[in-house]
Design brief:
The complex is a heterotrimer of chains A (273), B (44) and C (62). In chain A, a hairpin with a 2-residue loop joins strand 10 (186-189) and strand 11 (192-195). Chain A is α+β, with helices and mostly antiparallel strands. Helix content of chain A is 23%, strand content 35%. Chain A has helices at 22-34, 55-63, 176-180, 208-215, 245-272, and strands spanning 2-8, 12-18, 38-49, 91-99, 102-105, 110-111, 124-128, 133-143, 154-167, 186-189, 192-195, 224-239. Chain B is elongated and about 40 Å long. Chain B has one domain. Chain C is mainly alpha-helical. Chain C has a domain at 14-53: Orthogonal Bundle (Arc Repressor Mutant, subunit A). Chain C is 47% helix and 0% strand. The chains are: A alpha+beta (273), B mainly beta (44), C mainly alpha (62). The A-B interface holds A 40-50, 55-56, 59-60, 62-63, 137-138, 148, 150 and B 34, 38-44.
């Protein structure tokens, strides 16, 4: 099994996973979306709110703000020694106190741990008129996307099979397929159709080229074969800013590994009797 | 302790006993004031 | 208020709203603004394109 990174930055990551079963590729995707834990505001205490939004609406908006999460600095509240009370090891608390006129921004959320500040300070929460006031205390906990989408570290997280496009010998070089392809994967070299190596990964396997070829009356079989490699996958992962995208991949792999080890340990315990 | 209200026209604090009516200006639209406690909510 | 995230994909779109509004009101084509902001998926684009801010309308009635 191999992972080749093609593009990688804080925000998004694109890589090719080769030599893997479709079920494994899917488990990587699911682990990234639903198993990697991150911080998000879970409960909110409202002291005062004379803004134009209802308390519930304000709490909901705060819950969606992505918060920077460093791996291992917090433990899930269920596993914490405080038994769900909320302590420094499992909970980050924020205070937000703004008086109008003006906009309440996510940067106005003051955390007790500066490491867990909002990933973006430019998220508008609510606009206040003169005399309006919002005083809120919020508590963020660590959880996973299984519980609620606000704990999902990824926005886009998906994969497709690696495309394989080949041109048969009976191609007459009419160029109908080149015009039909919406991703411009094919191009004409002289009187021959060729696959543009750099653009091959953009192919969406739509088979419009195949249909265009048959429509020219080339015969029973089209001169272009569109298929995919069953054991190679192109992944696209985008982060919401809480955890860098490559870090999400790394953490998801170690979660899968820990799960696998747990399973084999459980099985060997059963086997031993 | 009855909840306190505020008149929509003269902004004075009003206690409702029998009639829903501001005793100061006679306006019939009253706003309920926010309670003193902290309102706990789930953010979802 | 503009929704914090895109309804469909979950990308944070609200942080782009102020800039989008300013440039759109200055007469720029929304297409070029959205491309500049890096909102290339149509789910995120519709969040800004179809948004109507009404907080200023409702605020006097508090």
């Amino acid at each position: 099994m191999r992972i080749e990174c093609q593009h990688r930055d804080e925000h998004s990551c694109r890589f090719v996973l080769s030599g893997a079963l479709p079920s494994f590729a899917n488990s990587v995707r699911r682990a990234m979306a639903a198993e990697v834990p991150k911080l998000a505001i879970d409960s909110v205490g409202i002291y005062d709110n004379t803004s134009g939004l209802y308390d519930e609406m304000l709490a909901h908006r705060l819950g969606l703000v992505p918060l920077r999460t460093e791996e291992g600095t917090y433990v899930p509240i269920r596993e914490c020694t405080c038994e769900g009370q909320g302590c420094d090891r499992c909970t980050v608390s924020y205070t937000l106190s703004v008086e109008g006129p003006g906009m309440v921004w996510s940067r106005d959320l003051i955390p007790n741990d500066p490491e867990a500040a909002p990933a973006s300070g430019d998220i508008p929460i609510v606009k206040l008129e003169k005399g309006q006031k919002v005083v809120i205390e919020a508590r963020a906990i660590l959880s996973t996307g299984k519980e609620h989408a606000k704990w999902q570290p990824t926005t886009v997280c998906g994969y497709k099979n690696y495309p394989r496009v080949s041109i048969d010998a009976h191609c007459d070089g009419c160029g109908a397929c080149v015009d039909a392809c919406p991703r411009r994967v094919l191009h004409l070299v002289g009187r021959k159709v060729e696959v543009d190596g750099e653009r091959l990964e953009d192919c969406s396997l739509c088979r419009l080229c195949d249909k265009a070829c048959l429509a020219t009356g080339i015969g029973e079989n089209s001169a272009i074969l569109v298929g995919s490699e069953p054991d190679r996958f192109i992944f696209t992962v985008e982060s919401d800013g809480a955890i860098p995208a490559p870090e999400i991949l790394r953490q998801s792999i170690s979660i899968i590994r820990a799960r696998g080890e747990e399973l084999s340990r459980a099985l060997s315990e059963i086997a031993e009797g | 302790m009855a909840a306190s209200y505020k008149c929509a026209r003269c902004k004075q604090r009003v206690e409702i006993d029998v009639n829903v009516r501001c005793p100061f200006c006679g306006h019939r639209i009253l706003f309920k004031e926010r309670g003193a406690g902290i309102k706990e909510l789930k953010a979802q | 208020m503009i929704p914090v995230r895109c309804f469909t994909c979950g990308k944070v779109v609200s942080s782009f709203w102020e800039e989008f509004k300013r440039r759109r009101d200055a007469g720029e084509d929304p297409k070029t603004i959205l491309d500049d902001l890096g909102l290339f998926r149509y789910c995120c684009r519709r969040m800004l394109l179809s948004h109507k801010e009404i907080i200023d309308v409702t605020n006097p009635y508090q």
